[in-house]
Design goal:
Elements lengths: L28 H14 L4 E5 L5 H6 L9 E6 L3 H8 L3 H7 L4 H15 L3 E7 L13 E8 L5 E7 L4 H21 L9
Parallel strand pairs: 1-2, 1-3
Antiparallel strand pairs: 3-4, 4-5
Helix pairs in contact: 1-6
Length: 194
């Protein structure tokens, strides 16, 4: 089946919202983002993000809400593996042994961005958007992590996501937001390997 665009030839078609309403989550992503910021404000806490496969989409979603500057410190897009070590302090031996798509790497990225940007919480995304495999992992293999300082929380979720690059990246953003919301609410969240 062929799809045709109705956009004029000299313009790009409008991009779909990467974190649009997610029926499985029970609320729109914009409401989820707003609730994350409200929970951070109640805790007098701040947030920083380290992104690989999402390439800035998570930071964009978090700053799409008015007033986000009160809780969002910033982000680092460390797409290249060497930047995960150089900017975020991910152990080179861990990267050499497992590659960038690993639960331990996601946790180290979250710790690194939290420490680098001086935030209360760090959130990280790493994985394979596809269409090819990377680091011996198939497309759709993703890890999202959240770490905190005051409560010592460290959570990581292992995901196997379906769809093309856009779908995997959008689902990763939604999953990271849901994991963060669960941590902020004090809810148990599924850990990698559980």
């Amino acid at each position: 089946m062929t799809q045709e665009s109705t956009a004029p030839a000299d313009t790009e078609p409008a991009a779909a919202d990467p974190v649009a309403a997610d029926p499985a989550a029970g609320q729109s992503s914009s409401r989820l983002v707003a609730s994350v910021h409200e929970a951070l404000r109640r805790q007098d806490a701040t947030l920083a993000v380290a992104e690989s496969l999402t390439g800035g989409l998570l930071g964009a979603a978090l700053t799409d809400v008015a007033g986000s500057s009160a809780t969002f410190r910033g982000g680092v897009v460390a797409y290249a593996t060497d930047l995960k070590a150089d900017l975020l302090g991910v152990d080179g031996a861990l990267l050499a042994a497992h590659g960038a798509v690993h639960a331990g790497v996601a946790l180290a990225m979250a710790r690194g961005v939290r420490d680098l940007l001086g935030s209360t919480y760090g959130v990280a995304t790493t994985g394979v958007a596809g269409p090819e495999s990377a680091d011996g992992q198939p497309p759709g293999t993703v890890f999202v992590a959240v770490v905190g300082t005051a409560d010592g929380v460290e959570r990581v979720a292992a995901l196997e996501l379906a769809g093309g690059r856009h779908d995997v990246r959008a689902a990763t953003v939604r999953s990271a937001l849901r994991l963060l919301a669960a941590v902020l609410a004090g809810s148990p969240a599924r850990e990698a390997g559980s």
